[in-house]
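@channel sequence for tomorrow's demo:
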Amino acid sequence: IIATANARVAGPAYPHFVTANWMTPWRVDRIFALLGEPGKKFQPEDFNSIQNDIVSELDLIVAKALVKASDNAKPKDERTAKLIAMLATWDGQTKASSVETTFVEQTERAIGRNLFHSYMADSLPVYPRGEVFLERVLRERPAIWLPAEFRNYDDLLMASADLAIAELTTSTHQSDISTWTWGKRNALFMPHALGQTGFLARLFSIGPVEQSGSTGCIKAMGTSYGPSMRMVADVSDWDKSLMEITTGESGQVASDNYQDQFPEWFAGRAIAAPFSDVAVQHATTHTLRLLPGHE
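structure tokens (generated this afternoon):
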């Protein structure tokens, strides 16, 4: 199996410098897990489903740590206790309707604030692989990183979860946890250079639209982030290949093809990508010919 999601492709023994800008390993780890399903004979549609997988492995790690910590330490806010109880059966799916995702993602930031507060006050370090640091701290629980105000890491986790609840209450202006759905927090906006606000934004841009997925799962989707295209190439029959792009093939806003592929790209519904001349001719609905001008 060969897989990469911008993660490290060279081991520590590799003698040559490639880059220091590897992404965190959770997405590629999930890809390996899905591709390694015993006895599975994959079809193009299966690979498309993998590309649209919305399980966040890191969020699951943190969720399980919170559930386990709650056996030994108790949160102060009853809403925190309720959400942690919900995490016990959560499958890590970052659905637009999920409040668990919102809670866990905010708690991860709160853990970081508590860990670094004595060094950076309320700021957080900008570190591309900060998630790796977080997972390692939660796994190894080194005494050197435990802030002095906490007796142990279970207390740190519960305090961070309570902090996350307080921050969500402030940022959303809502105390009802059922309103903290991930789709609202992770709404996609695709701004056009000529129309980022007001009427022009409605004319040229796309969104905001609530969405599933996150930057930490295979379907890497953020508020202004996502794949420029998805493609599955079937080398046994190129005409069975699949592909979709973010908007459409036309840059003219009045064209029917300006953003006609967006619904499929957004939903993760693959579009057939004919390759052979015969298949292309069969699928063609319009032909635009560009001819040289005459002097």
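heads up for whoever presents: The chain is about 40% helix and 5% strand.
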